[in-house]
Amino acid sequence: MERLQKIIAESGYTSRRKAEELIKQGKVMVNGKKITELGTKASFGDEILVDGNLIEYQEKEYYLFYKPRGVVCTTKDDKGRKTVLDYFDDTNKRIYPVGRLDYDTTGLLLLTNDGEFANLMMHPASKIDKFYVAKIKGVITKDDVKKIKSGVILDGLKIYPSRVKVKKINKQNLTSVVEITIHDGKNHEVKRIFESVGHEVIKLKREVFGFLTLGNLKSGEKRRLSSKEVKQLYNLANNKKRN
Q: Catalytic residue positions?
């Protein structure tokens, strides 16, 4: 017997947090009975309905995907734009992205049908490093870098990037290329960090998530994560939370 929200998350239907919201909203039924208490336990042998949809156990799948530019990180898009799931027609599992990359941002994105895993990877306490390469407008100065390293206030909290390094400055075109590592995961975080010192991001690519890299993948390609990599990610996040 497991907590109901955990079973729903493990089925791949949605994240555990979203499952808790659905339970509180009275949208979950177990063996014909509406459930609204978060402490309720059940098993995959029970008939569990969420918004009328039967919850069934799915084998867990984990993917590393090289997200192209001009693709949205949603399962559906009301504007008819291409989504990351358009690249996963070969799986019949209900997978979804772990966090988001902006429409115009490229690079490493994880997708899974494991709600518990997704929630852990996105949780702020996990503090998993994400390494980006940003091309920005203007010539970035030592003072700009110093201000970023000393902390930028976003949504009322001071954010400290793990690493900031200027790779290239083009004084003729008035652009700079900067490497930056963050671990907070706030919306549009990298763009907002550079905007705080007066620089607009022109291009942005995530190259590393934790210890994972894009390797030999090309834009639009994917690969499955090994069980060893999944275990390492769990250990990485849990160790960060303990520390």
A: 102
